[in-house]
Structure formats: structure tokens, C-alpha cells
Write a structure and sequence with these properties.
Mean pLDDT of chain A: 95
Order of helices and strands of chain A: EHEEHEH
Oligomer: homotetramer
Helix content of chain A: 40-55%
Number of helices of chain A: 3
Structural class of chain A: alpha+beta
Shape of chain A: globular
Strand order of the largest sheet of chain A: 2-3-1-4
Strand content of chain A: 25-35%
Distance between the termini of chain A: 33 Å
């Protein structure tokens, strides 16, 4: 089962700047060779469910290893069995309708 | 690593009533013997990361099996390494401060 | 238009304990006379859209006033126009199906 | 108070394709002259709190007007009082650290 997630990781107890934590999470998605795209309030990741979730777990483990005593993430998870649809397809579906 | 999640499952393409899908997800958390507590807009679940995430995957698989072509969930994930804290502890921490 | 939300407030830059911030948010929902119910990873609030959103804004303002330089909340927002449904109705709808 | 949100709107009871609803929400953000950026699983919007929230309300009203009996959105809300930070700044903050 494929999944598309949108995740925003939030380390707590490490001050207001969280960008270095976000950088490490990007590296984890990169290393896992998962299709991913960062935006200003989270990151889209797509791939096989188990592989994506293993990367999410690795992000939490990494943030704790970097010193965060507590982490809270918010995540959307989308699955569909009617057809394959990539992140690109979802965007195109909206862009095509906007162009009309 | 323990995790506490709050998940709201949303099957798409099955009409406006989603309660029978929510019922099946509760049964999955129950069968997995995970501590869980439903509220009006989601369910709290806590336990070992892998066990909790396996149950979340089972929820998506079950909803598709029940006929939903597409599912979108929103989820919060909390982990901490400074100390153990259950759902009950989190609530007590707030209630104790409210009583003052 | 009525709305039911589920909100989890997260003040950043104030350490790992956020319960005193959560307490103040409960007091805001209470003072606004909005039907609300806290759980271990957020709070359900229901009422007229403008009144609920004014309370959410007051929560963010209060957290900054208490010293949080930055706040990040995650929220679900549910509206329906087919019929009235309270938080209690949503729970009953699931419980009734579980009892069968 | 400025706010940056990330919102994913989900109309229920209208089938699996939600892109025409997303299109209308983009138009609402556009008409409100709010800085906004769509991604594959939501949209970032930033601006003054009241203006952003008025647009979010308009999205729900529009979806119901278009025929959705029920809508459920998931949203992140970020506010900060320590300094101004745009969506562009947040991304640059990560990109700069990744380049090192």
C-alpha cells in the first residue's frame, strides 16, 4: 500500500528555532530515497507505507538524539486503492482545473 | 520508543457517515491491546511505536477493505525521552493546575 | 455556521512542560461559554464559527502574553449543513454501532 | 497578529475527487490577496490573523454552497511575536543549513 504523508515535526524544549531539526529530517527522507518536497509548514513524502513510516520513526529518533527531550508532530496520511496518484498528479489535477 | 498519537480517520467516497469506519478502527486498537480513548473528533492511542503504527496501518487497510476507495487521516504523534508519561498523566497535569 | 474543532496548542521556546498554557486555553473556552472537552492530546470545542475562532485567537494571544515567543497549533475543523450534530451525538453514533 | 497556516480541506459526501473544491479555495485566497502556496497535500497561507481566518471560513462556506453536506479540514497555525518571518524566510532558513 502506497501512502502520501504531509508531516510537520516539532521538537520541544530546544528553543524557538527548529530548522536544524527539519534539515536532518530532510536528510532522512533523502537517504531513504523517498520522493519528498518541503514547503513552508511541513514536508510531503510519498512511497510504500512501511518505508515512509520507517523514515518518520527515524526522524523522531534523530530529533531525540540531537537533544530534544520531547517531540510532537502533526501528519496527514493519504491512501487510495482506486488508482495510483503521485504528488505531481494531485497538483496537476488542481492546476488543470484552474487554467480553465 | 513509546508514542502517543491522536488520529482522526476519514474515508472518502463513502458518503457523509463515517461512524462504522470509526467503529472498526476502535476494534483494531482494542484487538492490539493498545491503551486507547475515543473523543468526538479522533482517538488517542498510546504504546510502543511499532505496535501503534501497525494498528494505524491496519485501520487504513480495513477502511479500504470495507469499500473506501480513498482515506485521509490526520494524526498527532508525541514522543518523549525525558520521562514516561501516559495519557492519564497528561490530563492530570492539566487538571491539577486548574484546581489551584 | 456551527463548527466543531479539535485543537492542540504548542507553545515553543518555553521548555517541555506546556500544561500551564493548556490550562489557560481551557479557561478561555470556559469563559466564552463554549461547549468543550479536553482529552490527552487536544481539546474539542463546538459552537458558532466566529465565537469558536475568536477563542482560538485568544488562546494564541494568551500564550504569547505568558511568554511564548512562538506557538504552533494543529487543528481539525468540521462543519456540516445537512443536520445538527453535537460532540455527544458523534460519540453516540459510534457507541451505538459498537454495542451491536 | 500575523499567522501562517497550512490547511487541507476535505469535503465529504461528494465522491473521491476533491480537486474542484481545492480550486475554489485557491481562488478565495487569491481574491483575499493573501500570500499563499499550494502543495500536494494542502496550502500555506500567511497574513493578518483575521483576514486569514475569514478566508478559511469562506472556504468552508463555499464548499457547502458547492454541494458538500459535510467538510473536515486539518490545519496548522503558527504565530510568533519575537520577529517577522515569512514562508520564504522559513524555507531559506532550512535551505541555508542544508547547503553547509
Amino acid at each position: 500500500m502506497k501512502v502520501m504523508i504531509d508531516i510537520c515535526v516539532v521538537p520541544l524544549g530546544v528553543g524557538v528555532s527548529v530548522s536544524e531539526y527539519v534539515v536532518e529530517c530532510q536528510r532522512i527522507f533523502e537517504a531513504a530515497e523517498l520522493s519528498h518536497e518541503m514547503h513552508a509548514y511541513g514536508t510531503n513524502v510519498e512511497g510504500e507505507w512501511d518505508k515512509v513510516m520507517a523514515a518518520v520513526k527515524a526522524c523522531h529518533e534523530k530529533m531525540h538524539e540531537m537533544g530534544a527531550p520531547r517531540c510532537t508532530s502533526s501528519m496527514r496520511l493519504g491512501t487510495r486503492v482506486d488508482r495510483e496518484q503521485t504528488m505531481r498528479d494531485k497538483l496537476d489535477s488542481v492546476y488543470n482545473k484552474m487554467a480553465i
